[in-house]
Specification:
6-stranded parallel sheet; alpha/beta
Length: about 260
């Protein structure tokens, strides 16, 4: 707390728990930044999705069962997605889900899936290289992220850059602090909201249209060419080292 209050500047993202701590501790030396990402420029060369809808669950499986610390803000809440997806399958959704075998609650998730009557709809993959990770995203109709954090992370940004729609929880009031336009995602928080978003977006062409809009949004807001300059300004402010020529040394009368 002392460091946060006394350091020259805090760079923050508009996550709900970050805003909570800033407001409770009256932190005034804060700058909210849009994180510059090195987004994938060329989509992987994979066959377009066909057959049943393909969902790629890319986040760690973590819903505070195995690691139940009361102060944790980093769980993913993806047990709500698993229950919602199983409900959707019960209601006739024709879809498969690919999951990464990672996260403290992966065994809990396995047990939940195996106890259902839809275990054959799930495929488990091991840890993937960055190239294989992007290829798996490219094979999907819909990328599933997190439902607790309430803000953007790398998975959502990278999926959007590959023109994939993302099912995720983003807190609307927090988004408005950093963005002038809402991101075109399937925004959901509760199990019922997740279920409703899945059932309302069963058309592959509709999902592709949302993905195309998402790609435009993420490049406008998170590509390094569009937001790195803000980060470099605060870097100059804090270090005295100006990586950018801001023009105030120019003289229009000199040759």
């Amino acid at each position: 707390r002392y460091f946060v209050r006394t350091c020259a500047m805090n760079a923050g993202f508009t996550y709900p728990h970050i805003l909570k701590n800033i407001l409770r501790r009256r932190v005034t030396n804060i700058a909210f930044l849009r994180h510059p990402y090195l987004l994938p420029e060329t989509p992987p060369d994979v066959a377009p999705p066909s057959g049943p809808l393909r969902l790629f669950h890319a986040s760690h499986l973590d819903f505070k069962v195995t690691d139940a610390g009361a102060s944790r803000n980093s769980s993913k809440g993806n047990d709500r997605f698993l229950r919602a997806f199983l409900r959707a399958l019960d209601d006739g959704l024709d879809a498969d889900c690919v999951l990464l075998d990672r996260g403290p609650d992966r065994q809990v998730a396995r047990a939940m899936i195996e106890a259902s009557r839809h275990a054959e709809r799930f495929t488990w993959l091991p840890h993937l290289s960055r190239e294989d990770f992007f290829a798996e995203m490219a094979r999907a109709d819909l990328v599933v992220d997190q439902f607790d954090v309430g803000g953007f992370g790398g998975i959502a940004a990278e999926a959007m850059a590959l023109a994939k729609p993302v099912l995720v929880h983003l807190e609307p009031a927090c988004l408005k602090i950093a963005y002038s336009e809402d991101p075109p995602v399937l925004n959901a928080f509760t199990e019922d909201e997740i279920f409703a978003q899945i059932m309302a977006h069963r058309d592959r062409a509709q999902l592709a249209e949302i993905g195309a809009a998402a790609k435009g949004w993420v490049y406008r807001n998170h590509h390094w060419e569009n937001c790195l300059d803000t980060l470099l300004f605060y870097y100059a402010l804090l270090t005295g080292h100006e990586a950018v020529d801001y023009g105030y040394r120019r003289d229009g009368y000199s040759q």
